[in-house]
Design brief:
Blueprint lengths: L1 H26 L23 E4 L5 H12 L18 H13 L3 H8 L4 E6 L2 E8 L11 E6 L13 H5 L9 E6 L17 H14 L5 E5 L2 H12 L4 E6 L8 H10 L11 H7 L2 H12 L1 H8 L1 H10 L1 H14 L13 H4 L2 H14 L2 H13 L5 H4 L6 E5 L9 H7 L3 E6 L7 H4 L1 H20 L1
Parallel strand pairs: 4-5, 4-6, 6-7, 7-8, 8-9
Antiparallel strand pairs: 1-2, 2-3, 3-5
Helix pairs in contact: 6-7, 11-12, 11-16, 12-13, 12-16, 13-15
Bound molecules: 2-acetamido-2-deoxy-beta-D-glucopyranose (NAG).
The site of 2-acetamido-2-deoxy-beta-D-glucopyranose has 10 residues, from helix 6.
Amino acid sequence: MYTELALALGLGAVVALVAVIFQKKSKIVLEAQDGWWGVGACPQEPEDDSIRPFKVETTSGEIEDLNLRLDQTRSFPSLEDSQFNYGFNSKYLEKVVSYWRNDFSWRKQVDKLNKYPHFKTKIEGIDIHYVHVKPKRLAEGTRAVPLMMVHGWPGSFYEFYGIIPLLTEPSSPDDITFEIICPSIPGYGFSEAPHKKGFDGLCAAHIFNKLMKRLGFDQYYVQGGDWGSLITTNMAQLEPNAVKGLHVNFAPPGKGALLMIMSLLFGRRFPKLFGFTEYDVKQLFPIMEKLVVDSIRETGYMHIQATKPDTAGRALNDSPVGLAAYILEKFSTWTDNEFKNLDDGGLERKFSLDDLLTNVMIYWTSRSIISSMRFYKENFSKGMNQLHAKLPVYVPTGVACFPNELKHSPKSWVEQKYYKLKTYTQMARGGHFAAMEEPQLLAEDVQNFVKIVEKSKKK
Ligand SMILES: *[C@@H]1O[C@H](CO)[C@@H](O)[C@H](O)[C@H]1NC(C)=O
């Protein structure tokens, strides 16, 4: 009798506790404070919020300086049979440098960059650069759906040049026509670098939400991979009423460390218990090889950038060849981990040298490699215990899971963070730089996701 009573009371207490925890959780709304990232103290007068057209430009001085540095590069032979296993292969690097020096035309690529309208506007003391593409035509009585697409490291807004026409001029009449905004993360490409410490994903998210408001959008969609996925996730957490839907092609597990550890320990034996599909098991195990060894082998850059970005970055800021090797090595391994066993890193299987070097040139001419690397330091220095990392996302979410992504995220993990997961697509092919590598596949998945969200809103 007494034990039953105690049991009932105990159960009641547990239920009440759980209810309190959940209630508390649902009440926590992530907030961001306005920052000031300009030089010196924040001025008293209100900020100039004008939007200025911007054009990418170059000079013969800039190109001559580049050529001089390319001519002065000191080559150093790779080990025999080492391919890309020791880093960027020197034989292939010579080929890239020769193409860069003799065949690549920065002027031509600048024209290509300017084929879409660029703008700059000041937010929180720094100039924010973005590309803004409106559809050329719209069906009678329809409106374009605004979508912000955010790049990561070591990418740029240029990653989206292949997908922009697919989304702004869709071929099927059933498709949604988008209006696309691609900003440069502060400190990347043509966005000014923050002058103060502490600029992380949440700060970028706050600024990008402000940018969308300034452009007159009350409601919009956001999409991102790499840092772009963290930033757009944070945007959705900060402004769940403005962000109508969130689409990511990178979803590192952000919650439930215990569940993750348990599922990694026992998931291979009891996949059903942890909601793993056969595919999940194939992608995740053996964990020693897939997670531990791979992580150690492939994340050295992250440790450098999260600790002393300004030191290694200085060399890259001086040497275009060093910069290209550092950036393009990632376009090899992150597109396909097996590419490290190829003499040319498989780079031209998925990309053209023109496109790859254009991305490098965006870093080179804007001198932004150091500030881009600092983003890792700001991200890791605050620790893993950030509020946004613990909070779920309540905005409708779509996840495109590319098979060669750095880390596989099973649906059962993704649901832990994204409570309103509308689509989770196992993509047919592609890796980390999905927008650039497989624009068609990514565009289809974005279309599918936004259609589902729009339909459910109409009801
Ligand atoms: C840093 O990035 C990781 C991976 O996206 C994320 O889980 C973590 O919350 C970030 N930390 C901060 C301070 O934004």
